[in-house]
Amino acid sequence: MRRLLRLTGLPQLVAFYRYIYLNQPRLTAAAGSALALLISAIHLYELPAHYAASPVWGVLFALLAAGGAVAAAGIPAGARRLGWGLGAALSLIALLGYLASRGAGLPGLEEFRGRWDYPAGTLAMIAEGLFLLGYLSVRTGLAVSYPQRRRWHD
């Protein structure tokens, strides 16, 4: 494994990555909260259609919307697990669920199979992907979301 890493040059990239920091904690937290709220709003908007298709999926969409709102409130409050962690888990679940429902299909949502042209779903998929990228940048230290842990401030 070490040889493979050495051949790919990945350790040099990771070593370089440690010296890059985005010191904009308010912007990072605001972007994370805005994306979590957008994901929550999209799932709330789609709730009636999915509830009509299957009440189970309607309840899951309601839980996703509520969890997104909690994550959006937790990010600026400084609750790392409640904010970024919950938001990333919900984004990953929603993204995988969307891909599965459009690809192979899910029970109770057969009418959505193969419908990749749905604008709200595409917007949700983009927002969830961006939230996951933001989460990874905060977790790896590229972006600063909690400046008090590094003694950095705006």
Major sheet characteristics: none
C-alpha Rg, in Å?
Answer: 18 Å
Summing up helix and strand content along with how strands pair, one would put the structural category as mainly alpha
Give the total of beta strands.
0
Distance between the termini: 41 Å
Low-confidence stretches: none
Fraction of residues in β-strands: under 5%
Order of helices and strands: HHHHHH
Helicity, as a percent range: over 70%
The overall pLDDT average reads 79
What is the total domain count?
1
Overall geometry: globular
Number of helices: 6
Textual characterization of the structure:
The chain has one domain (32-142). By secondary structure, it is mainly alpha-helical. It has helices spanning 2-8, 10-17, 25-53, 55-77, 80-102, 119-140. 73% of the residues lie in helices and 0% in strands. Keywords: Membrane, Transmembrane, Transmembrane helix.
Can you give keywords for this protein?
transmembrane helix, membrane, mainly alpha
In a nutshell, what does this entry contain?
With 154 residues, the protein is an all-alpha fold. The protein has helices at residues 2-8, 10-17, 25-53, 55-77, 80-102, 119-140.
Topology:
Layout lengths: L1 H7 L1 H8 L7 H29 L1 H23 L2 H23 L16 H22 L14
Helix pairs in contact: 3-4, 3-5, 3-6, 4-5, 5-6
